[in-house]
Design brief:
The chain has 421 residues and is an alpha/beta fold. 27% of the residues lie in helices and 25% in strands. A hairpin with a 6-residue loop joins β9 and β10. The chain is globular.
Amino acid sequence: MRILALAPLALIALPAQAQEKPDPARLKADVEKLVSFGTRHTLSDPDNPTRGIGAARRWFAAELSKIGDQCNCIEVANIARSFTGDRAPNGVNIVDVLGFQAGTDPKRVVILMGHIDSRVTDVMNATADAPGANDDGSGTALVLEAARILSKQKFKATIVYAALSGEEQGLYGGQLLAETAKERGWTITAVLNNDIVGNTVGTNGQKVADRVRVFSETFGENEEPKALKGLRADGGEDDGPSRALAKAIDQVAGTVPAGLDAFLVRRPDRFGRGGDHTPFLRLGYPAVRFSVGVENYDAQHQDLVPGKGDTVDKMDFPYLAKVTALNVATIRRLASAPAAPDKVTIGGALAADTSVKWTAVPGAAKYRIHWRRADAQDWTSQRDVTGTEASLKGVVVDDSFVGVSAIGADGSESLVTFGRR
């Protein structure tokens, strides 16, 4: 596997008035191009120049390279590994196409991803046409469009743009990237998985065009029983890293003009289902899934028969542009900000005040202490300080939750780290 070195770049700000908006027409053109490969099934011919998963991956890499050539800021590389399973009984070479936009902190990473593979009703059918327009041409096109926009800026964190393979065969591409991140020692600030993000009309004809669902869990599967016991005792069930990421996205959504409501769903994914962010959750990384406000199940994993099939005509590209804008705005905030404090400790048992201490964060100009009543979900009060400890007068720890974020010199804010004993 070849992972390119992430060299530091200077950090500069882009004036708000110069920020480009996602283009629905460009998103549509990218989805149509992905559909033109016929099938992008993971087991399809990887060497065919015009049809199948290999041709689609090479096109995505070429598009990322074009963007990188324009800004001299994105390096493209593949990672690959063989996987075998029920849906790949003879083994398959899983290839993820990655674009690295290096930040000044080369090890801190924000990942934006979608899966490039597609399927029809029979998950083993690698030859039939499988357009995969919405699942997940929408997410793959979103990644490219975000790269076109974000490449015009420089950030503290490195941004990784990813088109993953093997999602439909067993989340293999997500597993490959998550394990690569761990092997390489990346500090992951956020993983934004976009999967089925381009339709507004559901199976029953209902139209939902004002919101996007953001799925998150409160803690990772890697948490030890002792840690989970402490989390339960401290009341942190709604404030793990992935849930903090979802809440940050909700805040960002309120700042995007004519944008979407972020509908925070407090479970890892749709009921009984999963996506490529799941392997990241297993390793304890902050990861969420974006998906449409209403799904059209007749346009998912369906053979091309009358009334069914994942085709371009069932999509809403102005809506997809809004989902893209929310992803872009979220990355702007998190990639510009310092890292979140690694640990926040609170005290105040048998006292009328709450004490707060936290680890210093490189590059933080100040810190923001957040607190709320214990019966509230969102932070309601805050105070900015320059040190690494404070006392919240009159805030009773028995009745309150506390967290701390790091603030950069430009005002960009990290995720909130929940305070524990």
